[in-house]
């Protein structure tokens, strides 16, 4: 089983040697302005150190303001954003990174991801990320929503593997082939929409919540990290943000981990990377 050091003081070591927290706050669909500022500031005050945003979320300015208002030293935080589809290509990606840094009010990103594998562009976008890392604007680089064939393309072209692949991953979409590929390639998997956009009323999750005296959300998030998958649940409510962090003082049995995995139906709540209109 993956060894865990708690939500805020440790995490997996990425292939580039940097440490990334197991648990982060996602801000997809969190409204720009006061809502995202409050969510980010609240999460950091609770103890979160990883915040995940994206240019496409249109709330980077608020994330930056929440970081600023938290008063936590920058070097204690791990901030991720993503290059949107319309900004892909080599030169456009360089400009997009600069724009995100300005909106966030930061000098450097901890992790920059390619948001989706836009055909004909994602390899050049990856080359731009490599350049940005070499120039010190980004500490770690990775991708989002990449399948093995997308990953093979950028690795074969550049010889550089992503440190992270952030994908839709939850009990109804376990992506076993992709999980194995990323483990074999030493690419850290990260789950977006880990809580299935709130669809947690599965009988097994309810049973396990009662068994372990936890919420269904805590069961799923614990299941993520026991498989070595970083998780970034989204919430704007302090109670939920705090609850989502309460996953480091209990352990699911191997049998229960397997039972959750067996819920898989290859069911997506988001787009399919191989059938998505970019």
Automatic annotation (TrEMBL):
Keywords, comma-separated and alphabetical: NADP, Oxidoreductase
Positions bearing the site annotation: Lowers pKa of active site Tyr: 82
What Pfam families does UniProt report for this protein, alphabetically?
Aldo_ket_red
Residue sites binding substrate per the record: 115
Q: Which domain of life is it from?
A: Bacteria
The molecular function GO annotations come to: oxidoreductase activity, acting on the CH-OH group of donors, NAD or NADP as acceptor
Q: Which Gene3D superfamilies match?
A: NADP-dependent oxidoreductase domain
Annotated active site residues, numbered on this chain, are 57 (proton donor)
Taking every annotated instance into account, which residue ranges of this chain make up the domain NADP-dependent oxidoreductase?
Answer: 23-264
* Transmembrane region(s): none
Q: Which InterPro entries match?
A: AKR (IPR020471), Aldo/ket_reductase_CS (IPR018170), NAD(P)_OxRdtase_dom_sf (IPR036812), NADP_OxRdtase_dom (IPR023210)
Record-stated family: Belongs to the aldo/keto reductase family.
Q: What is this protein called?
A: Glyoxal reductase
Question: Upper taxonomic classification of the species?
Answer: Bacteria, Bacillati, Bacillota, Bacilli, Bacillales
């Amino acid at each position: 089983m993956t060894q865990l050091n708690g939500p805020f003081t440790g995490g997996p070591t990425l292939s580039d040697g940097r440490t990334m927290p197991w648990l982060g706050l996602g801000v997809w669909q969190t409204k720009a302005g006061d809502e995202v500022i409050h969510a980010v500031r609240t999460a950091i005050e609770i103890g979160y150190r990883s915040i995940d945003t994206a240019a496409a979320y249109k709330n980077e300015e608020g994330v930056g303001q929440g970081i600023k208002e938290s008063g936590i030293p920058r070097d204690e935080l791990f901030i991720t954003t993503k290059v949107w589809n319309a900004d892909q290509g080599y030169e456009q990606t360089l400009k997009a990174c600069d724009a995100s840094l300005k909106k966030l009010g930061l000098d450097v990103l901890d992790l920059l991801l390619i948001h989706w594998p836009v055909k004909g562009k994602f390899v050049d976008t990856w080359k731009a990320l490599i350049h940005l890392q070499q120039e010190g604007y980004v500490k770690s680089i990775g991708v989002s929503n990449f399948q093995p064939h997308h990953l093979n393309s950028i690795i074969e072209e550049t010889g550089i593997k992503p440190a992270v692949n952030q994908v839709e991953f939850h009990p109804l979409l376990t992506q076993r082939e992709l999980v194995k590929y990323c483990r074999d390639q030493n690419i850290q998997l990260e789950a977006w929409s880990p809580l299935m956009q709130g669809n947690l009323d599965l009988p097994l999750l309810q049973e396990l919540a009662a068994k372990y005296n936890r919420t269904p959300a805590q069961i799923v998030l614990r299941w993520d990290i026991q498989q070595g998958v970083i998780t970034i649940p989204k919430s704007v409510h302090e109670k939920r943000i705090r609850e989502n962090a309460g996953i480091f003082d209990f352990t699911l049995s191997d049998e229960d981990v397997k039972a959750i995995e067996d819920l898989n139906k290859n069911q997506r709540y988001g787009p399919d990377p191989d059938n998505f209109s970019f």
